[in-house]
Amino acid sequence: MDNKSIDFYLEKLKNGMRANKHINNVDLADYLKAIKHEDEEKFFAYLELLPLEKRATTLIELPLPFQIDFIKEHDAAYLAQIIEVLDSDDATDLYQSISKTDRQKSDTLFTFLKHRTQETIKQLTYYRSSEAGSLMQTEIFKVSSDKTVAQAINILAKLKEQGIGTVQSVYVTDGRDRFIKAICIDDLLLEKTDSVFSEIINKFPISYSVMPYDSINKTINMMVKYSLASIAVVDEKGYLLGQITHDDAAAAMQKRATKQIYNLNKLSEKEHILESFSKTGRARSIWLAINLVNAIVASMVIGVFEEILLTIVALAVLMPIVANMAGTASVQTMTVVIRQMALGEINLHKLRPVFIKELKMAAVNGILFGILSAIVTQFWFKNQYVSLSIGLSMFVSFLLAGFLGVSVPLLLKKMRFDPAVASSVVVITLVDIIGFFSFLWFAQMIAL
Known about the structure:
By secondary structure, the chain is mostly helical. About 70% of the residues lie in helices and about 5% in strands. The chain has helices at about 5-15, 25-40, 40-50, 50-60, 65-75, 75-85, 90-100, 105-110, 115-125, 150-160, 185-190, 195-200, 215-225, 245-265, 275-305, 305-310, 315-340, 350-380, 385-415, 420-445; strands spanning about 140-145, 170-175, 180-185, 210, 230-235, 240-245. It has a three-stranded mixed sheet with strand order 1-2-3. Strand 4, helix 13 and strand 5 (about 230-235) form a beta-alpha-beta unit.
């Protein structure tokens, strides 16, 4: 949507006139983001012009640093009104953001919420951020199997009056509220209005569900695999608890991808470009300090071979080549392994073929680039001992880089560490040490 339409919409609101309610929340959020960079007071003023529900849903679309600024700007009673008009999943997310920003404010806010909202937030915050229940939305369109299509349409009309969001499916339950099947809305519209669900239920394909304690990764993989717009969440006895929609799954996928990219490059997954300089600096300094320790350890290994380095200067020139090549190879392997682990394609039971493939690849590349490095070194320094040393070192480093690139992420996962966070730190440090040590050791054994 163009900015002129939004300008016109806001101008009508400013003049106390009724305005089009169909302005997209995402477009509004993008517009307000641009405004905030230019004039923060205008940003808050424009937000206040919006009707309460529109204000709340637009706030959810804004980046987290902007939400935090909004939270700091308003008191607990005001924020409670915002939470009350949001869907359960968004309300819970905003409440958790408030709690992390100002715990005292969130405690006060909680007392202003309706009892039903309090219970919903308690339920959803109980689940870990890695569990499907943390993405669950409790507002759903459900009917019992003894209802007709006409009755279901009436139920949907009432839910729409109550403010339920986009509905993709109707969840059919038995008389005890246990989940039977999900039927897409477009399929439902093709049925005769006097049809009873128990009579037509078998016409539709099998439905899928997850339990609230299942991992988000499992949930996302299932939704992607079966092209699901939403998926039912049930307890261990099959009772319907809620649903996870495609937009929440997509947001979780984006968050997961960001986390992997950031962690592989030693950045905090919570870092945002719009955060303050000091907060970003603190987060990055921790990883830089860890990297400094790793570099010191690698330098200590080099120091062991100080005598031969002074004797053969070419070794000092060539050392970075071995470490860089092996490091790149290990990152390639790690990236593939960690990504496939996240997608559920690799686990401890499928380890053998992965190891065989990566070790074969490492051996082939080690031989190829070992020979190439030896040839280049011979032309460069005309020293067969150094050339042989770098060739052998390149092969050993590649082989161990492949082994570590597969084994370390899987081992960390088994130990309940996040492989995306720790793998790069562990593997690259070990590969550097192995590369330096093997090159200088071979040189010492061959040349002296």
